[in-house]
Design goal:
By secondary structure, the protein is of the alpha/beta class. The chain contains 16 helices and 21 strands. The strands form three sheets. Strands 8-7-9-6-10-11-12-13-14-15 form a ten-stranded mixed sheet, with helices on both faces. Strands 16-17-21-18-19-20 form a six-stranded mixed sheet, sandwiched between helices. Strands 3-2-1-4-5 form a five-stranded parallel sheet, sandwiched between helices. The N and C termini lie far apart (68 Å).
Length: 460
């Protein structure tokens, strides 16, 4: 299908329009003047936002929902036997998966910026978006999580800049040909799809090759630098090493939270950065965002001011409440590297005890990284495991959360969130941190814990 397909389209129907990845595309296309319609199975905040634009949304899926659409867009979660997808096929209406549509939309922006990497994509995309919006550059943005600064996960600007997250899973990011690509890191993940780490690196190499103007690279990550070593494009590097173009100097992290560093460019201090989000890993994210923003012409002062105002993204070390003196937080980490970064940050804060409540995500990832998960979780004072979230797999690996639990002292596992919530409420004490962690629905457990603690009073 040619990239000019949108030039011959007037009406687009979205199957699953309320999805976090679909809603931003619908907003951008609606702003461009396309006539849209959509369907979904569940109410959500994003769906309400879509309805607010006057876009007709039908609850449930049926063949007649696509109406007189010229083009259909669907999410990867939509089954092949979906009646709307089948109707489009029957009537010869082109149907594009969400990643393909993102690729087409991105091509309409002269300065498209794709943020890739095994870890940190959402936070870095959000940081860069906040810097550019806050500095008056008026970009459009497609973010993988809710950014409080804009009250959602997307922003429709009027410039030629688009900032978007580029996900490597099932090679989705290969639908993009960005002007600027940020590569935060290259790590072994999604091996249920890639099979080998070498295949992961090959995909990132192809993604980098499809970039047209500039690569912004983590110069401290050997895998990233090896992956792009033979690509002849202008490159900017960032990291802690002074050999990078942009690097952090005089770094101080007080109580794990108050992060301060000098932003250096070509050995010259250009500004001081104070972050309101915890952890060394967020310095890397901030460096990537700052380097890209500076390249685009944002002043060092504006970079510093907007990074200081950045308070995080939904489900990225998100503090949910402090009932009974117990801090309850939630984080999306679902790979051992992410888990280690999150818990290292948590343990550097002055809590009495850190409780890691972890839900493994997919059997394949759990089986392949069983020891690594155990090592990362062992950083916490106490560990509580939920059963593995299957997602798209059968348990042919014969792996269970108990297998991780058996490798960790001070750990327990439960089948249900109700049991976990009860255990936490009976054992956590004022001054503790309880952080739910995982890429699935473990946030629901955090909400249960919050609700239960709010109804509980401690008697010393």
């Amino acid at each position: 299908m040619g990239q000019d397909i949108l030039d011959n389209v007037k009406k687009i129907h979205f199957i699953g329009i309320g999805g976090s990845g679909m809603c931003p595309l619908a907003e951008i296309l609606n702003a461009e003047g396309f006539s849209l319609s959509g369907s979904d199975m569940n109410d959500s905040d994003t769906l309400e936002r879509i309805k607010g634009y006057g876009i007709p949304v039908i609850m449930g899926h049926a063949a007649e929902n696509i109406g007189d659409a010229d083009l259909v867009v669907y999410t990867a979660a939509v089954r092949k036997d979906n009646p709307e997808l089948l109707e489009a096929e029957k009537r010869g209406i082109p149907a594009l998966e969400r990643a393909e549509m993102l690729g087409l939309v991105a091509k309409r922006y002269r300065r498209s910026i794709a943020v890739s990497g095994t870890h940190g994509k959402t936070t870095t995309t959000a940081m860069l978006s906040q810097i550019l919006i806050g500095s008056g550059f008026n970009p459009s943005a497609i973010i993988g999580g809710k950014l409080p600064f804009i009250g959602g996960n997307s922003y429709v600007g009027e410039s030629d800049i688009l900032v978007c997250e580029a996900c490597e899973f099932v090679n989705s990011f290969l639908q993009l040909t960005p002007a600027i690509s940020i590569i935060l890191n290259v790590d072994a993940d999604h091996l249920d799809f890639f099979k080998t780490f070498d295949n992961v690196k090959k995909s990132f190499h192809q993604f980098a090759k499809q970039t047209t103007s500039l690569l912004v690279l983590n110069g401290d990550d050997p895998n990233t630098m090896e992956t792009v070593s033979d690509i002849e494009l202008p490159k900017i590097t960032f990291g802690f090493n002074e050999n990078n173009d942009y690097y952090a100097s005089n770094v101080s992290i007080e109580n794990g939270v108050h992060v301060h560093f000098d932003l250096m460019y070509k050995s010259e201090k250009i500004t001081e950065i104070e972050l309101a989000v915890p952890g060394k890993y967020n310095i890397y994210n901030a460096l990537a965002a700052a380097a890209t923003a500076h390249y685009l012409g944002v002043t060092p002062r504006a970079i510093a001011e907007n990074l200081n105002k950045f308070t995080g993204v939904h489900r990225r070390f998100e503090i949910l409440g402090k009932p009974c003196g117990i801090t309850v937080a939630d984080d999306f980490a679902h790979h051992p590297t992410e888990l280690k970064a999150t818990l290292t940050a948590a343990m550097s804060m002055e809590f009495n005890q850190v409780w890691a409540v972890f839900q493994p995500h997919t059997y394949s990832r759990t089986a392949m990284f069983l020891n690594e998960f155990a090592q990362a979780l062992s950083l916490a004072d106490r560990v509580v495991l939920a059963e593995i979230l299957a997602v798209r797999e059968e348990n042919t690996y014969n792996v269970f959360s108990k297998d991780i639990c058996d490798k960790i002292e001070n750990s327990v596992w439960f089948n249900t969130f109700e049991e976990i919530s009860k255990y936490i409420c009976e054992n956590a004490k004022p001054g503790d941190l309880v952080i739910t962690i995982g890429g699935g629905n473990i946030y629901m457990c955090a909400n249960m814990i919050l609700k239960a603690l709010h109804g509980k009073e401690y008697v010393d």
